[in-house]
Amino acid sequence: MILAQLFDRMRERLIPRHTRRERMLRLLYVPVLKRIMRTQRPCAVSPAGLDGNVESPAPDFSLFPDRAVPGEMPVAPPFAASRPPGNSQNNWFGPELATRLVELPAPIVVFNKSHSGSRLLAALLRQQGIFMGADLNEAFDAMPFLPVVEYVVKNYHPDFTSLWRMPHAPAELQSLLAQALDTHLQGHRPGSRWGWKLCETTFILPLLNMMFPHARYVHLLRDGRDVAFSDHVAPELPFWRKIYFGTDRVQSWHGMALDDAAYRRCSHLYNAWHWREMVGLGRAYGAMLGNRYVELHYEALSADLIATGRALLQWLGVPVDAQALATLQTKTHRRSIGKYRGQPMAAQRAVQRIIEPTLLACGYTCTPLPPHVPLLRRLARKTRLGSAWRPDKNQGAIVLR
Length: 401
Prior knowledge:
By secondary structure, the chain is of the alpha/beta class. It is 47% helix and 7% strand. The chain contains 18 helices and 8 strands. Strands 2-1-3-6 form a 4-stranded parallel β-sheet, sandwiched between helices. A two-stranded antiparallel ribbon has the order 4-5. A two-stranded antiparallel ribbon has the order 7-8. It is globular, with a radius of gyration of 30 Å. The chain starts with a helix and ends with a strand.
């Protein structure tokens, strides 16, 4: 900084403005000064250099011995940004629960935004001999894990820092986890593959990664435009406000209330936002899981269940029962895919405005929709471009042509 100020003063005193000499000296002065400033700053520098042409010299990181990669900020292991030093599964979850976790095989965890067709995926896994739980609802959701999700979301989501700073898992959390496993695994054959499907599992993935470091995670994706027109739950309770918006302190959204009546009037807007936030969070957590995470599109699964299911089972390391896949294929339909096209254009336009970037990031095609034109303007345009009142020379009468 001292050298930079010195050069500035020299330029102000010695170099007249708007002269040929000034322009020539600037060509020499600016690159040299930038090099000096780069070598004096120990913080991260753009790889392309400040001027975009000259490659930046490697900064001196001797003052930052904790940096793992030169030129980058320290990066913690996945989901371990605030874990206590030396903390392990055996002592953090308590001896009883930790022993139980060690004895279990690595589970298969399915998560998704609600109304994404996960019932079909859960049925596929069940028919392949994977134990998906003893207490399931009609959509094959593992209900024993819902109290765990509610506790974690209400107390720690979206910032798990306070949880990781604890020397041990809270007693209530340990109790909920033990109760969920006991209820879910009733009838499970020891040593056999198991797992569960629950949409809101997305919000406890950091905790699950600590519990099951070798688990496999399947993120089921579906076109958010179809999901937006499938009603779910209004963000009225604090739990659901955190699910939708990441905080329970929000009182309104885009000028709309967060009660059931407002949700019924514009449910497609709330659902579109819910889809965007939940898919984005699931993909962000999934990226940290590395090769233990896979994304599966519902459209691909329903279009060719045998081929898509076989590829998924091979990735999971599960023997393929071809007969079971063929049987399930006969019960699969695609009638609900693209159902959003039957909705009013204004509603489609509003949904697409919310989720278009996420749709494209997930690999879906998203063509621009026609702009909205008010009714009176449409009528006026039709009148100008179409028929007009004028006299008929043959008949002597005024007709509309």
